[in-house]
Amino acid sequence: MLRIFTAWMLGLMGWLCLGVAFAQADKTKQGEIISLQLDEVLRLALINSPDIKRVDAALAEKLAKATEIQLPPNPELQVDALVPSDKASDFRLTPSYAAEFTQPFRLSHLGMRQIYATALKNTARIEQQADLLRVLNETVLQYYRLWMLQKREAILADSEKQAKEVTVRISEAIENQETPSTEANLFKAEAIRFGVELKATQAERLQAQADLLAAIGSPWKEIRLAPPDLRPIPEDRFKLTGFAQTRANLQRLVEQRQRAAARRYDVARLDIFPELSLRGLYDRSADGNDETWGAGLIVRIPIWDFNQAEVQRSKAEKAVADADAQGLDRLTFDRIVEIRMKRATALQTRAQAYWNDVLPAYQKSYELSRYQFEQGQASMLQLWQVQQKVTEATDKALQNTVEALAARTLLEQAIGGKIEEIP
Question: pTM score, two decimals?
Answer without folding.
Answer: 0.73
